[in-house]
Records
---
Amino acid sequence: MNLILLGPPGAGKGTQAKLLEERHSLRQISTGDLLRAEVKSGTEIGLQAKAVMDRGELVPDAIIISMLERQVEGATGTSTAGFILDGFPRTVPQAEALDAMLARKAMPLHHVIELQVDDAALVERISGRFTCAKCGQGYHDRFKRPKVADTCDVCGCHEFTRRSDDNAETVRARLEAYHRQTAPLLPYYAANGLLRVVDGMAEMDTVTAQIETVLAGSHGSGTEPGQA
Ligand code: ADP
Ligand code: ADP
Ligand code: ZN
């Protein structure tokens, strides 16, 4: 089963993707995580992407598409039952490139799940977000604190990181980029019959349950019957 999680920054895509990964043996492909890894290792892509990300703008399509292509390539032939795209596509040209790539590989796309969240809630979610420095588990100052203070629930580590682009000014630019460049994907996938809308304002567990209901339902149109 191949899925796209679509939604504005802070909507809960990463949180839900990690849960789906475990439950359904899927592989999360997050272009944001890939870019941050490139920045960290100081690669050519990382050098180009860093300033753009810090401004809250979108990295050029050509860079993103070739990065994504390598990932999907790496996922085929492995034991995973499919992929969850988190943070990709973010523009209509990226969606068209994805369609072309999947068609070439005869891989179906089953659902495009939109997490709907108000802008005001997004600002609060993003400004309270932090992550375990070791295992990457996500937390929130208000909505998801570690069970034991300053200790990661998953790996017991005491070090946490906050993203440099999770600040008030950059968040505004990122929301604007979402509404201007990414929201046009909603009618694109509605026209394909793949769009499923989920209320992302609900609590995390409720959002997960809504997604599971979508996945338990019939697979989207345009898929190849019998394929996982
Ligand atoms: P995205 O990947 O869409 O940018 P995240 O999954 O990182 O979003 O979530 C943003 C922040 O909001 C994180 O700190 C996360 O713990 C928190 N969060 C995620 N889902 C919810 C929810 N349903 N209710 C409240 N907070 C949430
Ligand atoms: P969030 O979901 O919280 O906005 P991401 O981790 O998905 O954050 O993305 C962080 C930044 O990385 C974006 O603001 C953008 O600069 C860049 N980025 C990630 N994915 C893409 C993409 N598909 N196209 C263009 N830029 C991207
Ligand atoms: Zn951890």
Note: Residues 7, 9-15, 125, 128-129, 138-140, 143-144, 203-204, 207 surround adenosine-5'-diphosphate (ligand 1) (CB under 6 Å).
---
Amino acid sequence: MDIRNDWSFEEIQAIYDKPLLELMYEAATIHRKHNQTGEVQVCTLLSVKTGGCPEDCAYCPQAARYHTGVKAHKLMDVDEVLAKANEAKQNGSTRFCMGAAWREVRDNRDFDKVLEMVKSVNQIGLEVCCTMGMLSGDQAKKLKEAGLYAYNHNLDTSEEHYDKIITTRTYQDRLNTIGNVRNAGISVCSGGIIGMGENDEARIGMIYTLATLPQHPESVPVNALVAVEGTPLEEMKRVSVFEMVRMISTVRIVMPKTMVRLSAGRLDMTTAEQALCFMAGANSIFAGDKLLTTPNPSFTDDMEMFRLLGLKPRAAFKEPQMEASEMSVTAE
Ligand code: SAM
Ligand code: DTB
Ligand code: SF4
């Protein structure tokens, strides 16, 4: 079988260490075999609750303890969120992801409001996604019942590098949330960030953990650190496109059917650089001129890029492409 969950660290390392063009060619070949190349999922982010977060994630402009100039904002109203979702839909997005600067979801009135948001965004035909921190099994079930399609909860880095980045919650906490999301039947979105001072082993380690979960995440965001002034990582040098391509290619090869999202950091990349990432198997982007708090290319610029590269937005609620060999199995 092509989809494997029994990868060893060394096997992934051997892939990651290949000469770059060889690696990219292999990733592009696997991408072509398993997915509709040229189709890119367009996803819009909205920060529904901004800043003032109690956590200490070293990369994050929303952590209350750093002075980054991000203005804290309480949970938005459902109507405002719905208006933004409609706007995103008009612009061609098929997935709408709502982010909250919380350590975890709590069972309170804010959660009831989030459930309302999920219901109404689902009703306009968008794939609804949330990223709101840790989640219990019960909360995941409630979100699923409200119509949640996907939940984003990143591993961010490898288990070994993790405590250099975050100390206020553990790697196991993250894995537990991912498990709760999976058990509730919600699509799992989990990836990480490169450019936080980690070495190659840490990058490979993160891919290893994701690729050996009982089921691969349906989507894996690969973020390049956006070094924000005031955070502990403000001085980090931005990653090169070759590092992004190496990361994306390896993710594509070990998780062939997963959506690989070229996430934060696109504003600093040229169209030619992004083209290499799509060639290497990236098939999803965040669109719209803002990520959560930092800028992102405009819809107009992205549509021009799509035109130039011959890419087209992927339809909502599309299941991974089946291969002929798998169809006979499922038809039984
Ligand atoms: N508070 C929730 C949580 O931490 O899960 C949800 C929002 S949090 C901002 C979502 C993800 O955004 C983080 O896990 C991290 O991977 C990514 N992120 C945050 N700040 C970033 C930055 N400066 N550069 C790149 N990615 C970033
Ligand atoms: C993900 O992996 N990247 C997105 C989304 N999931 C939530 C967030 C990127 C945030 C970049 C910094 C900011 O805009 O605040
Ligand atoms: Fe808070 Fe999430 Fe930012 Fe960490 S990444 S500080 S949990 S908003």
Note: Confidence is low (pLDDT under 50) at residues 323-332.
